[in-house]
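Suppose you are handed a protein chain with no further information: no name, no annotation, nothing but its sequence. What can you learn? This example shows the usual starting point.
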Amino acid sequence: MSKSVLVISSMASAMMLACMAALLMTATPGASKARTVTLVGAGDIAGCDFKQDRKTARLLGKIPGTVFNLGDSAYPDGTREQFRNCYHPTWGKYKKRTRPTAGNREYNTSEAKPYFDYFGWRAGKPTRGYYSYERGSWHIVVLNSNCKEVDGCERLSAQGRWLSRDLAKHRARCTLAYFHHPLYSSGNGYDSPEVKPFWHILYNHHADVILNGHAHRYERFARITPSGDRSSARGIRQFIVGTGGAPGGDQHGPDEPRVQAKKVDAPGVLKLELGSGFYRWKFVPVTGRHYTDSGRARCH
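A reasonable first move is to predict its three-dimensional structure. Written in structure tokens, the prediction is:
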């Protein structure tokens, strides 16, 4: 056999060994494990005479990841001028990594047009305002809880049917949803029973976390069913994070017994680390405040 044939044979053998090694590395347990991703944000955010919105915006600059905006972005009416002059100088710095949902303030201006114009494709179609996206191994659903503005939130409404189809299509192990109005909250005046159909659909598809704003405070609930019963096996954990900068947040009425952590005057953001089969949360206060809340849980 000639030397050239031997050289070619050796090169072929080396290439085969390299390919086998690459396949073994790919097959190594944990090599394809989905990375942990970060979501960070709050709702009830900016007003030109507010003080805390600039401080919460600075927190976003220190925490990488996707920014969730839980609605009521620009006070008091979500006008074009309020988005330009109040929201844009603060949270607007992070617009390119923000995925928002609409609050009731946005609809104080006809059809929430300034909101949809400002965020563009990031807010979903203007006639709907609901959409979904993926982060790591998690499926994220963004809903529009201004039910009268989108022809209802019932199970058979256009949004309800879309939600059922979306969750059936994206069968992720872990699912998170966010929208402005909470189903349950402490005190009076903030419960929004019209979003219960969302909860039923999400619960039936084994969703793990729901984020809301509207009430100007921080609350973390135990895992509960749509009817409000505790269920560590299948319940959804609700966070209220109406702490983006809007003042107020006083509670009127009795404590909510299913709330595991609560702070009324708590400007700050919620940081969520979403991993393969688990999530970690941490409430991060603005400079000068000290309240925090943190924990970890597994997906269903």
